[in-house]
Amino acid sequence: MFTSGSKSERxxxxxxFTKPSxxxxxxxxxxxxxxxxxxxxxxxxxxxxxSNVFVMRRRxxxxxxxxxxxxxxxxxxxxxxxxxxxxxxxxxxxxxxxTNIIRNFELIDTSEQFHQIMEYAPYExxxxxxxxxxxxxxxxxxxxxxxxxxxxxxxxxFAHRDMKLENVVYTGQGIMKLIDFGVAADCQSKEExxxxxxxxxxxCPRCERLAASNNPLAGIGTRPxxxxxxxxxxxxxxxxxxxxxxxxxxxxxxxxxxPWKEATQADPRYVQFSASRRNSTLPPSKxxxxxxxxxxxxxxxxxxxxxxxxxxPTIVSTPPRKPFNLFDVLPESSKELIQSLLQTNPRxxxxxxxxxxxxxxxxxxxxxxxxxxxxxxxxxxxxxxS
Length: 386
Hints:
Elements: H1 7-16, E1 38-47, E2 51-58, E3 64-70, H2 79-95, E4 104-109, E5 114-119, E6 123-124, H3 125-130, H4 136-155, E7 158-159, E8 168-170, E9 176-178, E10 185-186, E11 193-194, H5 208-211, H6 229-232, E12 235-236, H7 238-255, E13 257-258, H8 268-279, E14 298-301, E15 314-316, H9 335-341, H10 352-357, H11 359-362
Antiparallel strand pairs: 1-2, 2-3, 3-5, 4-5, 6-8, 7-10, 8-9, 11-12, 13-14, 14-15
């Protein structure tokens, strides 16, 4: 951990950012360290409160990369302290090496802004789900790859803390990639994190920019995906919250909608779901025989811009008219797994090791298992319309 303003920290940062020459040329002759390596393409991918993302082309080989440009440090902020936040996100991504996690190439400081250079995957899972054109095989492949990436992340000692459709992109070969580790938690030294009583995040000291955003529970996740304990407990386990969010991701892919707006007693759909879990003694394989519910769900609507800048999809809800049973509409083969992910008691949820070993994931036809240049006859689905 850096100490703000210390000489050792400045030396550490200097090894990450592009070093100026010993005798810098006059300002008008200085070379931009970003533009010297990467050429603009004009393609914009999205914006958030702390950054914007666009596509550039690497001059050395012509390959495309995604560039995350962080906002400028505010006049009231210490630049070294702000740099710590950026470097923390970069280092988490740089430590990871997995097919289903986006690769970080380098971090460039242009003296005014930091630029994170990443692998470019041109397709967004949120848009694909919104198209309502995913086949059962494609859904299973997509979810299996997401599970693989998240399991690796947890095994490496980190929790994502913002698992959602918008944080998954994929390549033209159908390879899913987890992105955005801005609020990821390092769980190598501790498993439990705390929240403050007023709802402001104290979970990620490296991300003060989120905690200061006046957004309730900022830095913990996105409300429809957040585990119930995040709304009620002062202590929680980030990895178990990721597992819950993974279950919501699956339900959203299958339904094309959220099962509820938030996992609190203020949401009638969640109340009905949690009540049915407490009252049901049937194993998940028998739940199809209890078709007494008309599922009422929360719809996802794309914005007009249809970009990855969507922070939270627009929510449209209708009051349920009958008891809510989520498992009535899920594929039979997935019910045991999803019931284990959506345990309201986090201590009863499966770990990602258990998820990976489940039949649903083990038997999934994963595009990530293809060998370059070889066709796998067991994989018949596609992930794009083209």
